[in-house]
Amino acid sequence: MEIVHVSAECFPVAKAGGLADVVGALPKYLNMNGHKASVIIPFYHNKFRSQHSFSKIFTGFARSGNATYTFNVLVTDDFDPGFDLFLIDILGLFDRENIYSYGDDTERFIGFQVAAVNWLCAWEKPIDVIHCHDQHTGFIPFMLAKVIEYQQFENTPTVFTIHNGEYQGQFGFDKITLLPPFHSYFTGLIEWKGAISPLASAIKCAWKVTTVSPGYLEEINHSMSGLEELLRTERSKSVGILNGIDAHIWDPETDPLLDVNYGIANVNAGKKAAKEMLCKQFGLDPKVPLFAFIGRLAKEKGADILPDVVYHTLTYHRNEQSILVLGSGEKHIQDGLLHMEHLFKEQFCSYIGYNEKLAHEIYAGADFLLMPSRVEPCGLNQLYALRYGTIPIVRRTGGLSDTVIDMGDDGFGFCHDQCTTHDVMHSMHRAREFFKNTKLVTTIRKRIMKIDHSWEKSAQDYIALYSSLK
Ligand code: ADP
After folding, report:
1. Average per-residue pLDDT in the chain?
2. What would the DSSP string read from start to end of 115-147?
3. pLDDT exceeds 90 at position 229
4. CA of 353 to the centre of ligand 1 (A)
5. What is the gyration radius of the CA atoms in the chain, in angstroms?
6. Largest pairwise CA distance in the chain
7. Is residue 470's pLDDT more than 90?
8. For 136-181, where are the E strands, in sequence order?
9. 323 within a domain of the structure (yes/no)
């Protein structure tokens, strides 16, 4: 099958979070299974652009609102991601460093979607499925089905994956002309509760809707910031497919971002070395258990309770543990963490920012990974932690419930029900007690490293889904 993915992110070209990891891995695994998958993303003027060279393969025009854009489609000359990667360069919209958070994101991503579809119109080979990811590509299923200009795709199946339903991208009807002209009869397909919503439109128009874990699909039928009713209506075409991990990139035995590599056989020695280097870097004690958090400093991730957790747990158990946080996001959380660093200089450190290498070093060097998330559609961090022999401490929600089993249920992690300081501290207490039993720690480390969360299985689920649409 010829499968085209359209996304705002793709690892390692442009990454803000898990979406990039998924779009950078699933197509590779589809190709390994004999299909032809490609990816289309915007061409951001970021670090990846300055480190590689590119060739232009197509020039086209896209109209959106009052603006007409010339766009170029580029391919990389010196980098092979494992699939055909097409980068859409639109001057005025994407010649900036960051992926999101500009005032004109609505204009930028509608411009991108129009350009992507205009370019697909020029493809000579037939496309079996167009797979769109998150709200930034949410209008594509509608455009293909209902915009006369794109009639040639009327019968091309579309799949839409919700990676994060909290970001819906809605805007007012004053901007309706940003979309290509369509019969007003179809306006209901882009509307939700009085606004234009790309996420709602995708849920209505895509042939199939997927979520990144079965647990998240169940959850959002009851709660997804106003869209739950729509999801219930479209339940019959929705399916939850658990994300996988790129086992070639996330492998402690070969990971080039680690200074010391290790496997199941020498997990204790490997993790000890990784922990010592990490603790040295941050001035922490390597002899006590090291708890870490990696991720966006957002309420959704439960990061807002971290300063409080650090304060209380280190007040009561000061020299029994070290805590390390890597992340960036809401300023009040960053400030709270910096304050804690001041209070607990030798026990707590935070690195505010984005750092791919450090993330790998933490997955390797930490003993426990904290994920107190309020919302977690799948969560990749716990899957990376498992692969690196790091024990996850998670709130039971979404994909975390699907992938982490509590020690008390013959499992391998620590689970709690609430995103509260009390619940997290209770799990940390259990973890510290567990850490004293070195034999059990070794057994569990070896056990979790053997769990196969690679894309191999989930890619099969996507292939079955695509095949059902033919
Ligand atoms: P999200 O909701 O943010 O997409 P996921 O768990 O799905 O969460 O994916 C998060 C991904 O982003 C993981 O690869 C994680 O290692 C990475 N990540 C998050 N924050 C940082 C950071 N500050 N530095 C490096 N990597 C990060």
Report:
1. 97
2. HHHHHHHT--S--SEEEEESGGGTTHHHHHHH-
3. yes
4. 11
5. 23
6. 68
7. no
8. 158-162
9. yes
Instruction: Work out whether strand 36-42 and strand 84-90 pair parallel, antiparallel, or are unpaired.
Output: parallel
Q: Read off the pLDDT of each residue in 107-115 and give the average, rounded to a whole number.
A: 98
Q: What is the spatial distance between Cα 426 and Cα 44, in angstroms, rounded to a whole number?
A: 43
* Amino acid in position 88: I
- Quick check: 224 pLDDT over 90? no
Q: How far apart are CA 231 and CA 336, in angstroms?
A: 37
Contact 100, 169 (CB under 8 A): no
pLDDT at 159: 98
Distance 197 CA to ligand 1 centre (A): 26
How confident is the model over 66-110, as pLDDT tens digits? 889 999 999 999 999 999 999 999 999 999 999 999 999 999 999
* d(C-alpha 19, C-alpha 137), whole Å: 12
Q: Are 44 and 186 members of one domain?
A: yes
Asked whether the CA dihedral 226, 229, 230, 234 is positive or negative, the reply is positive
Beta strands in 278-413, from DSSP E residues, in sequence order: 290-297, 322-329, 348-352, 368-371, 391-395
Taking each helix axis from N to C end, the angle separating 306-316 and 331-343, rounded to the nearest 10 degrees, works out to 10
Same domain? For 110 and 161 the reply is yes
- The verdict on 136 and 211 lying in the same domain is yes
Say yes or no: 217 and 312 in one domain. Answer: no
Picking from 112, 81, 88, the residue whose alpha carbon sits closest to that of residue 13 is: 81
Residue owning the nearest CA to atom 20 of ligand 1? 295
Residue 83's domain spans which residues?
A: 2-244+456-468
Pocket test for ligand 1, best of 354, 384, 388 (most atoms within 8 A of CB): 354
Q: Is 327 in the pocket of ligand 1 (CB under 6 A)?
A: yes
In whole angstroms, what is the distance from residue 87 CA to residue 74 CA?
5
341 and 438: one domain? yes
Tell me the pLDDT tens digit for each residue of 372-389.
999 999 999 999 999 999
Q: pTM here?
A: 0.95
Element (H, E) at 5: strand 2-6
